[in-house]
Amino acid sequence: MARSFLTGENIYLQPMDNSFFDPKYLEWVNDDEIIDNMVTLNFPATEEALRNYILENTSKENIAFFAIRWKENNEFIGTVKLGPIDWIHRKAFYGRLIGDKNYRGKGVGTEVAKLILSYAFNRLNLHWIGATMGVENIMSIKSNEKAGLKKIAVIPNQLWFKGKYVDNIIMGITSEEYFKSKNSS
User: Fold this and answer.
1) What is the CATH number of the domain that holds 114?
2) DSSP alpha helix (H) spans, 17-174
3) In 3D, which of 18, 106, 100 has the Cα closest to residue 55?
4) CA distance linking residue 133 with residue 76, whole number of Å
5) Mean pLDDT score of the chain, rounded to an integer?
6) Residue 47: partners with Cβ closer than 8 Å, 6 or more residues away
7) What is the mean pLDDT of residues 10-39?
8) Most CB atoms within 10 A, among 37, 84, 119, 178?
9) pLDDT digits over 60-111, tens only?
10) What CA–CA distance (Å, rounded) separates 77 from 74?
11) Cβ distance 103 to 50 under 8 Å?
């Protein structure tokens, strides 16, 4: 496991740095099927734009940006970003992209969420972690629920998705809820 930072049962998270670039990442962010449920990826990405995005997010002290790798073969299968982190209020949102379609439906999203929550609460001493997604993104909603996040808000008709406006779901969990669930299991 090259440069493993956070390790789960089937995956590990490798810190991204400004030298990271994998052509698969560029394919993923330009694949309609993969980004279909993403809130942010609406324009085609060039290699230069993606390299700038990686550099921008790896050079900030309030963003933790990782490559998701499958432990068995070190395969790069996605990315996850925590931040920007608000250090005063100790809160952040996180987002993930499981780009390799062969690893979808295997619990990777839930495992990523659990690793990020553990990192955020146990190591960074954050108080609240959230995620946002369109109501159509059922897989993301379910994996966040399995990791302990709860739906805390529904903003009606906020996101433009497949020719219509859909509800934006905000999910979150506090450190108290996280530690309580860990102590009861």
Assistant:
1) 3.40.630.30
2) 23-29, 32-35, 47-58, 108-118, 138-147
3) 18
4) 23
5) 91
6) 21, 26
7) 84
8) 178
9) 999 999 999 999 999 999 999 999 999 999 999 999 999 999 998 899 999 9
10) 9
11) no
Q: How confident is the model at residue 182, as a pLDDT?
A: 82
Q: How far is it, in rounded angstroms, from Cα 106 to Cα 117?
A: 19
Locus of tokens 């670039």: 21
Closest CA to 25 of 62, 63, 80: 80
* Domains of the chain: total: 1
Q: Which two tokens stand for residue 169?
A: 């779901």
Please give the biggest Cα pair distance in the chain: 47
Neighbours of 102 (CB within 10 A): 10
161: which strand partners? 164
Q: What is the residue range of 29's domain? A: 6-184
Total length of the chain? 185
pTM of structure: 0.92
Q: Are strands 6-7 and 91-98 parallel, antiparallel or unpaired?
A: unpaired
